[in-house]
């Protein structure tokens, strides 16, 4: 992590290293299994796997921003938004990321990018319309913490590897069976490859979900400690979560695939089993943590 005034989080760092190691190992094993099962398609598998990974790593910020409808804006267009980001970056002693706005009524924010120099921080028009300045500051500090801790880059790469497994599987099956023709083992291969792909996706899904929940709590802590106003962040969390219920279900469904990157989930889990698979800790957990930080700051 670059040296900033955001509080370091060794727990987050260790979880990121372990997650990336396990997912990387899983991905190598997956590609290796495909190479063994589909020997005739190995050049295609290597090219697709390497090409997709490099493209995703270098263009992750643009891909994510485009997918979520974000548009980079100037200080003249959104002076208040840029002003808050400027103050927070000066306070945190970190480079200013590009600032974007997404035209949607869903109140949310996200950050993306492989490093601080390529980062983008985005707020939706729904968020800007609903929050008070100190609440907006808390949300943007939360997102800047993701950039400072580099967990946004880890989440982007980790999430993409699961999707890549499915893409490579489809390409490999197509290329492999074209080369095999009526091979008697084709039926067995047709069963094994989707099974391996499903296992890879399931494991990467669980690993990224566990990391995602922890990193949200870490960003809440860092933002509250940097700004010294955990109550403002708690107010923003409560307001955003409450306002989600007023958003049309169709709009929430469109935003749901990007939950792992958002400040608050578009559709929150309510059942205990669903919470284990969710991208965010519950609102109660986040508010409880902010309450403890507030008490500590008051005692200090």
TrEMBL record:
Keywords: Cell membrane, Hydrolase, Membrane, Metal-binding, Metalloprotease, Protease, Transmembrane, Transmembrane helix, Zinc. It is a multi-pass membrane protein. Binds 1 zinc ion per subunit. Pfam families: Peptidase_M48 (PF01435). Its EC number is 3.4.24.-. The chain crosses the membrane at residues 12-35, 41-59, 152-174, 186-207. Belongs to the peptidase M48B family. This is Protease HtpX homolog. It comes from Streptantibioticus ferralitis. The lineage of its organism: Bacteria, Bacillati, Actinomycetota, Actinomycetes, Kitasatosporales.
């Amino acid at each position: 992590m670059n040296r900033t005034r955001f509080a370091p989080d060794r727990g987050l760092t260790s979880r990121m290293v372990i997650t990336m190691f396990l997912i990387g190992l899983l991905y190598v094993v997956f590609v290796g299994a495909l190479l063994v099962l589909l020997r005739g398609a190995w050049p295609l598998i290597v090219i697709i796997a390497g090409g997709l990974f490099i493209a995703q790593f270098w263009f992750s910020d643009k891909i994510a921003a485009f997918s979520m409808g974000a548009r980079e804006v100037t200080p003249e267009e959104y002076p208040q938004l840029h002003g808050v980001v400027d103050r927070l970056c000066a306070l945190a002693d970190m480079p200013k990321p590009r600032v974007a706005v997404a035209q949607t009524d869903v109140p949310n924010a996200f950050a993306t990018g492989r490093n601080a120099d390529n980062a983008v921080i985005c707020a939706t028009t729904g968020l800007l319309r609903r929050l008070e300045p100190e609440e907006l500051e808390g949300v943007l500090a939360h997102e800047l913490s993701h950039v400072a801790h580099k967990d946004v880059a880890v989440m982007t790469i980790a999430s993409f590897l699961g999707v890549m497994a499915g893409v490579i599987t489809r390409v490999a099956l197509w290329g492999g069976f074209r080369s095999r023709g009526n091979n008697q083992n084709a039926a067995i291969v047709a069963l094994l490859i989707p099974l391996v792909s499903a296992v890879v996706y399931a494991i990467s899904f669980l690993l990224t979900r566990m990391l995602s929940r922890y990193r949200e709590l870490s960003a809440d802590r860092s933002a509250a400690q940097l700004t010294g106003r955990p109550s403002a962040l708690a107010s923003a969390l409560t307001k955003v979560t409450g306002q989600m219920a007023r958003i049309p279900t169709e709009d929430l469904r469109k935003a749901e695939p990007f939950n792992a990157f958002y400040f608050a989930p578009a559709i929150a889990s309510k059942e205990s089993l669903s919470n284990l698979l969710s991208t965010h800790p519950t609102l109660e957990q986040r508010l409880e943590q902010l309450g403890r930080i507030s008490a500590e700051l008051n005692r200090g």
